[in-house]
Write a structure and sequence with these properties.
Elements lengths: L12 E8 L4 H15 L3 E8 L7 E9 L16 E4 L19 E5 L4 H8 L4 E6 L1 H8 L3 H13 L4 H12 L7 H13 L2 E5 L46 E5 L9 H5 L5 E7 L5 E8 L9 H5 L5 E5 L5 H6 L10
Parallel strand pairs: 1-4, 4-5, 5-6
Antiparallel strand pairs: 1-3, 2-3, 6-7, 8-11, 9-10
Bound molecules: iron/sulfur cluster (SF4) (2 copies).
One iron/sulfur cluster binds next to helix 7.
C-alpha cells in the first residue's frame, strides 16, 4: 500500500503543472493521475484548464491524490500545491506563479540554470527547488518535455512509483503510438536521474506569496485592461517564444533568393521584408530577417524553402546574437 507523504486539511496531496499549449502538460496530468489511481491504489482526480488554441496559450493541469477511503468532493483548481511543475522557463515569472508555494512545496523548473541560479531567477522564498534541463533531454531523445518532467516529478516526490508512471505512459501511447513508447520511457528515466534538488528554509530573501481565498491583489480596479496577463504565453505581447519545443529555423541570407515561399507558408507572419534594389537595379521586396518573437518553431518554412536558405537548429545551441538579429550571412555564424 502506497502512502502520501503529506496532505492538506481535506486529505489531498495536490499537484499543479503550469505550462503553455504544445508541451503535453494536459497529457502529463492524465498519465500521472492514472499512475496514482489505477496503479498505486490512491483515490484522486485530474483536470486541466486551457484555451481554444492548440499551441501557445496558458495551460494548467491539476492532480489530486488521497487515501482510497476519502471521497473526492473538490474540483477547484489547486491553489496551494504540494508539487508545482513549471514546464518552461519563459512562463516561470508570470504573475502569481509562486502563489501558494510554502515550505511544504516542491517546485520543479525546466531550466538549464543551476538550482542556486534558479532560486534567484524565480525569487523562490522557501521549500524544495528542483531543476532539470527537460528541454535538452527532450530534444536529444526527440520527445517532449512532459515525460522528462514526469521522471523528475516521480523521483523528487519520494512516493510516486516510477514503474506505475511508466505503465501509464505505455497505456497512454498505446498501439497507435507504439513507436513513441521506447523514446518516452528513455526520456522518463533521464528526467528521473538528471536533476538537481535543494531545500531552502525561509530566510526572508524573497517573500512568501500566500494564496488569499478572499481574492488576489489583482482585481477589477487594478488589472490590465481586458483582464489579460501581459506576459509570455498570453495574447497581449504576442510573444510566441514560449511555444517553441527546442528547434528554430535560421535564415542564411547568402542562399536566399527572396522567392517568398516561406512568407506565404508561415502561419505567424515572422518574416521581415524591405523594398530594395535587386541585382537588375529594380525595386523589389527583399527578405531581411526572421522576427523570432512571433516564431513558434513549427518549421514549415524550413520544409518549403527550395534553396536551403532556411535550416533547422537546436535553439539553445544557436548564438543569442543570431536570434536577436534574425539572420546569418553564413551558417558558420550560427553557433
Ligand atoms: S523560401 Fe527560402 S529562398 Fe525563398 S524567400 Fe524564403 S528563405 Fe528565401
Ligand atoms: S518556424 Fe518558420 S513557419 Fe513556423 S512560425 Fe517560425 S518562421 Fe514561421
Amino acid at each position: 500500500m502506497h502512502k502520501l507523504p503529506i496532505t492538506n486539511e481535506l486529505g489531498f496531496y495536490e499537484i499543479k503543472m503550469a505550462s503553455v499549449g504544445g508541451f503535453g502538460a494536459n497529457l502529463a496530468g492524465k498519465i500521472l493521475a492514472e499512475a496514482g489511481i489505477l496503479h498505486m491504489g490512491f483515490n484522486g482526480a485530474n483536470f486541466s484548464s486551457y484555451g481554444s488554441e492548440k499551441k501557445g496559450s496558458a495551460v494548467a493541469a491539476f492532480v489530486r491524490f488521497c487515501a482510497p477511503d476519502i471521497e473526492v468532493r473538490v474540483n477547484a483548481p489547486v491553489t496551494e500545491p504540494h508539487m508545482l511543475v513549471i514546464f518552461i522557463e519563459a512562463i516561470a515569472k508570470n504573475p502569481g506563479m509562486l502563489t501558494g508555494v510554502s515550505e511544504n512545496t516542491t517546485v520543479i523548473l525546466n531550466t538549464s540554470k543551476s538550482v542556486d541560479e534558479a532560486r534567484d531567477f524565480l525569487e523562490f522564498p522557501c521549500g524544495t527547488l528542483v531543476v532539470t534541463d527537460a528541454m535538452k533531454i527532450a530534444v536529444e531523445e526527440k520527445t517532449r518535455v512532459n515525460t522528462a518532467l514526469l521522471g523528475t516529478l516521480a523521483a523528487a516526490s519520494g512516493f510516486i512509483s516510477p514503474d506505475a508512471v511508466k505503465g501509464a505512459i505505455k497505456d497512454a501511447l498505446g498501439k497507435k503510438y507504439a513507436f513513441l513508447i521506447e523514446p518516452n520511457l528513455r526520456t522518463f528515466d533521464r528526467g528521473a536521474k538528471e536533476y538537481e534538488s535543494k531545500k531552502f528554509e525561509f530566510d526572508g530573501k524573497y517573500p512568501i506569496q500566500k494564496f488569499n481565498p478572499h481574492g488576489q491583489k489583482l482585481g477589477y480596479l487594478n488589472q490590465p485592461l481586458g483582464g489579460i496577463i501581459p506576459s509570455a504565453g498570453t495574447s497581449l505581447a504576442k510573444d510566441l517564444t514560449a511555444s517553441r519545443a527546442g528547434h528554430i529555423p535560421v535564415l542564411d541570407l547568402s542562399r536566399c533568393t527572396s522567392c517568398g515561399e516561406c512568407d506565404i507558408t508561415c502561419p505567424d507572419y515572422c518574416f521581415v521584408w524591405a523594398e530594395e534594389e535587386n541585382k537588375k537595379g529594380k525595386l523589389a521586396q527583399t527578405l531581411k530577417s526572421i522576427n523570432y518573437r512571433y516564431c513558434k518553431g513549427c518549421l514549415r518554412c524550413v520544409r518549403i524553402c527550395k534553396f536551403d536558405a532556411l535550416t533547422e537548429h537546436v535553439e539553445y545551441e544557436v548564438n543569442p546574437e543570431v536570434i536577436e538579429k534574425g539572420y546569418v550571412n553564413s551558417l558558420e555564424e550560427v553557433k
